[in-house]
Design brief:
Strand content: 15-25%
Oligomer: single chain
Number of helices: 3
Distance between the termini: 82 Å
Helix content: 25-40%
Number of strands: 6
Shape: elongated
Radius of gyration: 27 Å
């Protein structure tokens, strides 16, 4: 991808968003750039219509829509990048950001934690530490003689 604009966005080994489903917009960035900042459209907005896409299976699409709900505008997810001076690097950053968001949204939920009890050794160590600490504090007291 060196020196090239990314065509498709690779989310994972099994999922790639084709370039035909992506929408790019460019505008002037407010960041660093010297005199060129006023003439170069280096800020990048990358949009993908998640709601209208047929790329994901129904279960993954539902999970992604639920998890990205706050970021979606009418089913479309948009990411922006303007931290680099060149449009190419901002395009790469926006593609990576979109891939990360989608990968996180379609990831399976974490396994639920099964409640466990502390082991007998852990409980005994905790109580021994408490007793040792209490003894240290008792030894600091002045004798009432």
């Amino acid at each position: 991808m060196l020196g090239r604009v990314p065509d498709d966005v690779h989310v994972s080994e099994r999922l790639t968003i084709p370039a035909a489903e992506l929408s790019w917009r460019f505008s002037r960035s407010s960041g660093p750039g010297g005199q060129g900042v006023n003439t170069t459209d280096s800020r990048v907005e990358l949009s993908w219509d998640l709601g209208g896409s047929e790329l994901l299976p129904a279960s993954l699409k539902e999970r992604a829509l639920e998890r990205l709900g706050a970021r979606l505008v009418q089913g479309v997810i948009t990411v922006t990048a303007s931290e680099h001076r060149s449009q190419l690097r901002n395009r790469e950053a926006a593609a990576a950001r979109l891939a990360g968001l989608v990968a996180g949204a379609i990831a399976p939920p974490p396994r639920t934690r099964r409640a466990t009890r502390p082991s007998r050794g852990a409980t005994e160590r905790r109580i021994a530490d408490k007793k040792r600490r209490g003894q240290t504090k008792r030894n600091r007291r002045a004798d009432p003689d």
